[in-house]
Amino acid sequence: MKVLKSDNFFPNCSGHPSHGTDQERKYVTLISRVASLFNIAHKPVGYTGPLSRELLAFTGFSRTLTKELRNYLEMVVANLLTAGDADRENRKDWGGLGLM
How many other CB atoms are there within 10 angstroms of residue 52's CB atom? Predict the structure, then answer.
């Protein structure tokens, strides 16, 4: 997957950087994508700047992928436990399994 690169992953969406050289625009795109993966605490003031549909599409894609991978991991763990493929009796880290 080439999602976390500076390539134009969503060509039909508006909001690509428009200032600077081609290399600077690629760096801004990459930095924006990486920064969108983290939860940032901010003041509850309405945003009035331009909206990047490209960044919104990337954020939606990454959050959907994260949820699906989490669901897949939970299904694999549930299958291991119900099928008896995991050692359930001698485990002491049951709380840690839920924090994956």
Answer: 19
